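Dear colleague,

As promised, here are the two records you asked about, laid out in our usual form so they can be pasted straight into your sheet.

NAME FIELD: protein one
SEQUENCE, THEN STRUCTURE:
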Amino acid sequence: MNNLEWVDEAWSKVNSKIDRTSKKIGANFPHASVNGTYQLEEPFWWTAGFWPGLLWLVYRDSKDESLKKIAEQCEEKLDKVITDYYRLDHDMGFMWTLTSVARYKLLGEEDSKRRALLVANLLMGRFNAQGNYIRAWNPWHEGEDNSGWAIIDCLMNLPLLFWASEVTGDPRYGHVAKKHGETVLSNFIRKDGSVHHIIRFDPESGERIEAIGGQGFAPESAWSRGASWAVYGLSLLYKHTKEDKYLQAAKSVSHFFIANLPEDYVPHWDFRLPEGVTKYRDSSAGAIAACGLLLLANQVAPTEAEIYENAGVKILKSLYENYGDLENPNQDGLILSGTSHYPEGKNIDVPLIYGDYYFVEGLSILKGHEELFW
């Protein structure tokens, strides 16, 4: 198959499958596919935006009203999370960027704008001014204190703040996003371009205390999805700020990511695993990074762009050809072999909704859709 003909073929199959699975899943919040069926989470779970976001990606191209209706119903279900849930955390960026911001960008609906601006204020309220970071989670267990924790994933929540500054004309949101970005540059990225998942700061003084392994194998390993959040998140930071330090950081983490890919271009779940630990793939990390690499390619000189574009295309093509399950009526997921949380033994070697989302976003980019929801 020459050049990008496979993209149209993949897109057609995605449309057919989403037409079927949307009727099964409806206005709910899938996370991981177990034995072929997407397991549903509560609306407050961090992955709540990815299914409606995926529907918006397909709707943008197909104008299928049934997909629009489901995505809108998902967004409405999230209203109770804003008002009634005590543990809303930094991942509200993921959740409302792919629901409210996406709908506002596509349809200009004022209720979506209002929701997204409210959530942007809530996200900005998590900013720790001493440490210049957006706090990640709230306590998972009674008595736990994670008020000093920040994580690499949060880079993908920052576009909500940049969007809020853009639509309101108020620079404060963007200021917070940039301060968090600066903290990522100085604390999360190693000299070789690999990244930490979690950094713990003293919430009173802002001083860095330690790196924590999180969903990677160990504190000094290289969790591939963390690397992919950095590839895409830093490329987005440069898109929104045009500050060269973010461009250079995006290049650094991208070079590390590309250099550590296996022969089929789909990463193992951690790039630094000792002997004896199973090297499961994480297709979601590949899909996320591919989108970031394609964005980075569009922001550098043509002489540089080829390395990033080629890698992004090869990842997506490999996901389609080697991990795609687009015509199987007994599988809700689009791409196989995602690894959600190896240290906790959760959802290993299964389709993941965020892997599906970024795979479809990557295809849409290759089809020529330049506007991102981020």
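NAME FIELD: protein two
SEQUENCE, THEN STRUCTURE:
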Amino acid sequence: MSLKCLVFDCDGVILDSVPTKTRAFARLAEPYGDEARDRMVMYHKTHGGVSRYLKFAWFFREVLGREITKEESARWGELFSEYALDEVKKCPLIEGVEKALVHWQHVLPMCVCSGTPTEELRSVLELRNLAHYFDLVLGSPPAKAQVLANIVRELKLDPADVLMVGDSSTDRDAAEQVGTQFYGCGPELRNDGLFPWGETLSGLDDWIAAHV
């Protein structure tokens, strides 16, 4: 088993954009009261990597007591992008990720697997001058595990030779379901102890070099 492809989540792995997205969810829910806002934020934080549209649907169903309409979902999506996009364009990179991207470009295929809608994801990476590092950029829908499976299938790889780099349990679970290797970063995953992990990605480049 050796590494033949690197797959990165975006928020919290490439871009330090998780706080920005959290503020956007809070702003959407705030008109419904402090408790509703806090429940939205908590759900978002405990379901990292899940499509924003599924989070919107959860909020309407569990907090407001009704199903979201297609029109409401589309409008919340527009507002979310408006609230978050300007900050995402300016937020810093996660420490260590640029070193890995520069080192392994043209050596291993690199892809992005994210819960962000695909077109928005590609737009952000273009604006941040990062798109050129990646051979394939896919977002939601579908769910994260299916996106990762689609990447593996598209590149005709054995899942065991693919590394998924993520910062959430959704990323970890996707890697487990698809059968890829996993490297975790950030505080949500630090106590799992079942895979390589770092607070940042400062150790990622060396880890990859040892496993190619």
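A couple of things worth noting about protein two: The chain has two domains: 5-16+93-211, 18-90. The beta strands are 5-8, 110-117, 136-140, 162-166, 181-185, 197-198.

Best,
R.
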